[in-house]
Structures are given as C-alpha cells and as structure tokens.
Amino acid sequence: MPNLHPQVAAVTDRIINRSREKRAAYLALIASEREGGVDRPRLGCANLAHGYAGTEEQRDDMRRGQSMNIGIVTAYNDMLSAHAPYYRYPEQMKVWAREAGVTAQVAGGVPAMCDGVTQGFAGMELSLFSRDTIALSTAIALSHGMFEGAALLGICDKIVPGLLMGALRFGHLPMVLIPGGPMRSGISNKEKAAVRERFAEGKADREELLDSEIAAYHGKGTCTFYGTANSNQMMVEAMGLHVPAAAFANPGTKLRQELTRAAVHRLAKIGWDGGDYRPIGRCVDEKAIVNAAIALLATGGSTNHLIHLPAIARCAGIVIDWEDFDRLSSVVPLLARVYPNGAADVNGFEDAGGTAYTIRELLKGGLLHGDILTVAGEMADYGRKPDMDGDTLVWRDLPEASGDDTILRPVDTPFSAEGGFRILSGNLGRACIKVSAVERDRWIIEAPCRVFSDQQQVQDAFKAGELDRDVIVVVRFQGPRANGMPELHKLTPPLGVLQNRGHRVALVTDGRMSGASGKVPAAIHLSPEALADGPIAKLRDGDVVRLDADAGVLEALVDAAEWAARTPAEAPPPAMGTGRELFALMRQGCSTAEEGGSAMLAAGGF
C-alpha cells in the first residue's frame, strides 16, 4: 500500500493532538462500561424476566446467556421511502441471528423525518434537532443492558448521524450499520431540475411538476441523487461500519438480502466473548473520522456533513473542525460526478464502480487510512464489490478501469485535483462553500445584496421580478439558535433561473443548503449566526458583498467605521406551531454549526 499522503497524515495528527484529552476520557468511559456497566449478567431476575417476556420463542436461548443478544435499533416508517424497506428486516434478522447461534430483539425505534417532505415548510425547522432526538432515542433503546451488540437500521439525512451519536455512547458494544439501498432510477435529474425551474418561472403548472416529482421519487429506497442520505452511506463505508460495499444495492434484490444476512452473521463474530472483539468506540477513531471526511470530499458529497461529522466525532471524544476539511480538500481529488455535481444518479455511480472503486482508488493514492479497525476485515476489503455466485454472496476484485469515466475516475486522472470544499472568512464571519458543482467563472461574485429573513420572502421577491439582476441573496436568522437551521433547498430553482438568465448570483446564509447544493455559489453555515449578533445581522439592502472562493473571502464592502457603528437587525419572533415551540430549549442551548449544531453536545460538555 502506498505511503499516506503527508497532508492527510498532518491533518490526522492535528486532530489526534487536539483530541488527546477528550479521546482518553472517552476510551476510559467505554472501558469502564465494558467492565462494570449495565449488562445482562448484572441484571436481577425480575429485570431479565421483563426483557425476555416479549420474545418467548427465544427466551430459553437468551436465558442461558451463553451467546450474544443483538439489539436492533430501527428507523422504520413507511412514509419515508428510504426506510420503508426495513419493515421486514427485524423478523428476517432474528432468523439469520439464530443461524449464527445468537439472538436478536428490537431494542427500540427512532424517529425518521423526511426532509424531502418538509422542505420549505414549518416542519423543516425540526429537522436538525431530530438528529439529537434520534441520538437520545438510540441511547434509550440501548440503556436496558440486554444487548451484547447492536444493529443500526438507518440511512437518511439526520438518521445515520443520530444513530451513530447515540451508539457511540455505548462504544464498548460491537455494532454494524445496515442500509436498505437506493430506489431504482426514475426520470433523469436533469429533466427533474428543468421542470422545477420552469415551474419557478410560471411556465409549468402544479400537475406537471407533481408528475415530474413522482416520476423521480417513485418507489421504496433512498432518493437517487447524491445528497446527505447517500453521502452518509459513502462515509460509513470509508469508516468501515458496513459489511463491505453494502451501500447501494437496490431494495428487494437477492444481493440486498444477503448483504443484510452477512451483516448479522458478522456482528455475531465480533462480540466481546470471542477472539475478534471490535467495539464501535474503537472502530470510530481519529483515522476513521478522517477517512469519512476524505470520502465526502472525493465524491462531492453533502455540505450537511460539515455539521454532522463534527457532531459524530465529538461523541467519540474527537474534535474535528472546518479547517481540517479545508486542508484535506486541498489534496483530495474529486473522483465522482453524481447529481447535483453531475448528470448521473447513485445507481449510475454504483454501476461505474461505486463505493468500492472510490475506496480502492483513494487507498491506491495514499489518501485513506488503510489500517483502521473495521467491522469486517481490512479497509482494502471495502475496495471489492459484492456479487451473487448462484445463491452465495461473494466479493470480487473490480476491473482496473471505471465502468463510466464520465461518472467515476481513477485517482491519477480525477475530475479535479482538489475536493469541492472551501472555507470563506472576512468581516461577515466564517462560512463554508461547496464548489464541486459550481463553474469556475462563478467562484467570484461581487454584487449588491438583498436581505431576507426567510426563504418565502425570497420566492416572493423572485416572482415579483425584484431579483432579476446581479444580486447576492442574503437569508439570515436561519441558524441553529434562531429556528433550528432549516435547509433552504427551495431557493435552488429561483436562484438557478436567475443564473441561467446570465446574472451574477450567489447566496449567503447562516442556514443550510443541504446535499442539494449545486451550481449556484452558496456561502452557508455562516458563523456567528445572526441571532448571536453575527455580522450578517448588520447587512442592509444594497450593500456590496464579495464572495471569493479562490481567495477564501466573504466580506461586505462597507466602510470599516460605518460597519463598526451599525446596529444588528432585530430578530423575528420565534415561530409557533408544528411543534416548533417544543424545541425551544434545544435552540437556546445549541452549539455553533462548526461544533456540530447540537444542544445535546453543548450541554454535555463533549
């Protein structure tokens, strides 16, 4: 295996040194939980009887206590297409567990909201904090002391980060994440985006738009664009927390079923009573976190993970910041073009070689840690592709060449020599920008700004023709403390229309733009946020703003004395309804986006 790239080694060392005290405390915690925490041998007879009563068919095996009992934590619901396939998983997994000589129980369910359903509406303001709720729900599920290992069933945006955050507080247990796979391809992403833009201009009616959206999102499985959900899967593969290359096999196939069966069998082998103990708290170390960041950058993944990965890391005693992403991005090549960074969807990505090809190439280039502790074999095993040989699951070596070099390329001939992430800073604060889908001549935008306090105001101004010019659209009071940091994905069509008309357009916000961040330059996650008297609260309509992704600059071109004298704008009152008031405590105590945007972590001293 090639030597590790010096920049990857330096960033890893930077994270190790910064995290030394917190990581040591974390490892001490999980060691004490392993030795003296709550587990089945320590439970009283009445406690055990309660735990066994709901599963009479397994009670005798569980009572003997001589083998692992797997806790299944599931995010199943049938409103969320990606999680609908999980309906039958627990009963199947119980059968496969018995094949391996162990038992399994559903430890608990976690909420799984769909950002695709809530986009642009009040429910989206609950989205980020659903991740903390999922983490807490995972902890409740595993708190009973009935399990020697866990299977985590989740795929989408906040669900995988939340599951991992909760699971890592039980880091002495071996755990495997089990995906469900993407739906098969519908209409092309290019066609879907075109209909959305026509609708934004009033050239398509609601029925045409609905027909288009249903043709795109048409069945069970993950959405097929490369947003946060599918970026989750790429990162989990690079961390070695799936069985190898499990991410993108379609639901309802024999391959998908056998990958899940293999995950259960593998979990049975890595318990603490055997010779191959692999607790999740040891698997998720500094090197694994760096691998996740590199996989994200190499594939042009979701900007949401600039919030999620720091939050996951902190739950394992590891501190990663945006500077680490920025330094890695300078040396990690862009190997994939998947919508919104290209025309293909994740099924096309998988057909071209998928996660296995990406990991193999990154290892070949010395850009991934190959020596991490995975749940299954070595990191190199994640560079092989699963297949069915009759009724037998096997992993095969990939061809040397990509299956489609318009989608996926080798490490020595990438789409770009660097990843798609930059930090921007200046008198407006510190923000992130994803440039992997932005044309190079759009990396620098300087224009008068128009300031808004929510995305509906932007849409109204667009429809009124008020934005039909060079403009930097500013949407503030969208940070985690203000309103839960909703994604502003509804802004993509109107801003795309303005750009298509030839205008120089950009977005600046203390909110999120999601895994759908695309061709319009967007400075997002701006910190400090407006509610914390961040400089974005000083902007006024007509101020000239410069966004320069080449130089890493974001600034208001306002006289320094005038800027210093300005009073920040007053925040709108907190919104009520759709349960938003129930999350007020989380908003008030939330950490910054760079620290993970979490009330739970801020309060817990992570």
TrEMBL record:
Q: What lineage does UniProt assign to this protein's organism?
A: Bacteria, Pseudomonadati, Pseudomonadota, Alphaproteobacteria, Sphingomonadales
* Gene name of the record: edd
- Alphabetized HAMAP family for the sequence: Edd (MF_02094)
* Chain segments annotated as transmembrane: none
Matching Gene3D superfamilies, A to Z? Answer: IlvD/EDD C-terminal domain-like (3.50.30.80)
- Which cofactor names does the annotation list? [4Fe-4S] cluster
Pfam families per the UniProt record, alphabetical: ILV_EDD_C, ILVD_EDD_N
Start and end of every Dihydroxy-acid/6-phosphogluconate dehydratase C-terminal domain? 407-596
The UniProt note on the cofactor reads as follows: Binds 1 [4Fe-4S] cluster.
Q: What SUPFAM superfamilies does the annotation carry?
A: IlvD/EDD N-terminal domain-like, LeuD/IlvD-like
Name the UniProt record assigns to this protein: Phosphogluconate dehydratase
Cite the entry's keywords alphabetically: 4Fe-4S, Carbohydrate metabolism, Gluconate utilization, Iron, Iron-sulfur, Lyase, Metal-binding
